[in-house]
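Study this:
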Amino acid sequence: MVGNRPADDPEKNELYDHLIERQHDRMLVVDGTDQMLVAALQQHATVVLQKSLREGFGLTVAEALWMGTPVIGGNAGGIPQQIDHGTNGYLVESVDEAAQRIIELIGDPDHAAEMGQAGRRKVRDRFLITRLLEDHLDLLASFEAHFIPKPAR
């Protein structure tokens, strides 16, 4: 499990301590402040889970999709704008549903890889700064000029 302790979460330390107390040889809790480690884990994972109950734009979701890893995410906040259910990951409502989708993707690595590539395309087409810059330039180009300079004399 990888994560950080967001400043706006009043239960952050309680949750982290709870996980640390229960980690064992099949679960390792890693502090998510090491960005290189997080990126490496996202890139080499079969699936990333972001089971938020509320979320804005899920940066974790976008990062994992960009790394070519399918994401199972809570059907909350901005996550449904990033995950196309069944195409680049799954939107889930319950812990049981999330567990079932994890088992499905681990059991079918070819399908997981296809979903991961679809996720990378989605991030490239919708969320990269270069695409957003192109939208801004298109918007500016769409304005009709009302000021026409007079030729210099």
Remarks:
- Strands lie at 2-3, 30-31, 48-50, 71-74, 89-92.
- The longest strand covers residues 71-74.
- Residues 69 and 86 are 13 Å apart (CA to CA).
- Helices lie at 12-22, 35-44, 59-66, 79-82, 95-107, 109-126, 129-142.
